Amino acid sequence: MEFDRGEPDEGNGFQAAHAELIASSHLRLLRRPLLPDGGDDGDTARRLYHAPFVILAHDAAPDPVFFYANLAAQELFEMSWQEMVRLPSRQSAEPLAREERQRLLARVARQDYIDDYAGVRIASSGRRFRIAGATVWNLIDAGRTVGQAAAFGDWIALA
Asked: Where is the MEKHLA domain positioned along the sequence (predicted)?
């Protein structure tokens, strides 16, 4: 599956197709909506992009690359949309944490989702932060896994 990596805005409906894939996969696998009130008002894409928690998604390439990062993710990782959607997702973790991250992705691939992930990530400035309580799930389109997404609202800066 090819992902449009254009920045979400009014012109592309805030990446409506990506938002639908992320939200519908979450609902199907976790049996609960990603947005607190369900997001059935026809404005899911805008609401995901402006959500007060981080939402990220990467493709299913052998070295997955992010194709979606809402504003909270861009701020936390200190990157623009264009920087985020060119970033191999492994580079969001420090080199020593990449093996742990790979185990996480394999676990999600087997189970379809996890809702208890914690780990250390790194912003473009080198600032490190620990995330906790992250949910990571497979993105399913027409019966096949096309990537994975993550959402979390809990992080703390590390020294």
From this structure: 17-155
